[in-house]
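JOB MANIFEST
job_type = single_chain_structure
chain_count = 1
residues = 75
[input]
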Amino acid sequence: MASEKFKLDMDDVKGLVKNALLVGGAAALTFIGENVADLDLGNTGVLFVPIVAVAINTAVQWLKDNRTDQDKIEG
């Protein structure tokens, strides 16, 4: 955030919105991950839970963009 003190420019707003979406996505994924184990799916639960776990892990990696801080700085 390179704007002056107590002033927001569009880059600051974009950064804030992106962070808010990441936090909201992380909260949603945490909620889903915590409650998947409580579902009573019978025999299909053995199949369903690992698939959801992989999907959640993939979503987390996608949200993080799988880049290091140096990669983000370089573009």
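[summary]
The CA atoms of residues 29 and 35 lie 10 Å apart.
The mean pLDDT is 75.
exit_status = 0
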